[in-house]
Amino acid sequence: MKAPRFRKWFATLSSLNQPQRRQVLDALHPAAGLDQVVALISQAREPGRCCPRCGGGRCHRHGFANDLQRFRCCACGRTFNDLSGTPLARLRHKAKWLAYSQVLLDSLSVRKGADRVGVHRNTTFRWRHRFLAWVKLDRPASLNGIVEADEMFLLESQKGSRTLDRPARRRGGHAPMRGISRHLDCILVARDRNGQTIDAVTGRGALTAAQLERSLLPRLDPQALLVTDSHAAYRAFARKHRIAHEAVNLRAGVRVRRLGSHAIHVQNVNAYHQRFKAWLMGFRGVASRYLPNYLGWRWALDGERVSSAAQLFCLAIGVINR
Ligand SMILES: [Zn+2]
């Protein structure tokens, strides 16, 4: 609409009655959602915008498609938009993405999320894992000071798979063997006393020193004091990499002991385990292959670290705030 005509139209708005105002607002609401999402995408991706094919930083505007500005790379000629190469590329219904980010903040089920946002539940399931793919990467660069580490186990699950690599469980929720076995997924969580937390799904069965090397070592400050239970893998790992290590002998009933001015225990990390497990119950079982996404999701919610839908959305498109 041209400007003079728009002014005239806009001037008539004051003469609307209440139901008419409602109707106009309802008509504009989806567009407002879309505008907000498009603005966030461009704000978030503009610094350091580069070609997804060659990484070149020089590009020029090249029309609009699917509500987004397209760009053309000056070096290789490829066209792209601000979502190319992100997990959200080519997803539809952008106007609903912020509402969906709020669904994630509220930990709603696939079905409830679909009802709230007004899309099919297959869509909210797909969105859940696309959104979380990069949200889960937002982790502290390193853990410092006293770092508690401990593993927890969850029954391995092939929920949603068309073929199982084992016989189906007749009565759900129990491992066919007692103790720690290949039927359990091992999840390592490490948390320092500032609350910075990392986690890793290390595999099936008992934790090994090699797995600690892979998942804990790169994020552990060399000056840190590692505190764990008396599992031999931690001792072997700490000795090999010359990391200061204190173990609490939980089996002997020791939960806390003093070391100078420090309290040596793994209660913070165990509390984190409990919060994660209690929260996960709300989803009535999740597939093992998606566990890293759920761990990342939980970390986003922990202590309200991510507190707004916009902030969560920016993480989903790759603004990592370590
Ligand atoms: Zn290029």
From TrEMBL:
SMART domains according to UniProt: DDE_Tnp_IS1595
Pfam families assigned: DDE_Tnp_IS1595
Positions of the ISXO2-like transposase domain: 142-300
Official protein name in the record: Transposase-like protein
Protein's organism: Massilia aurea
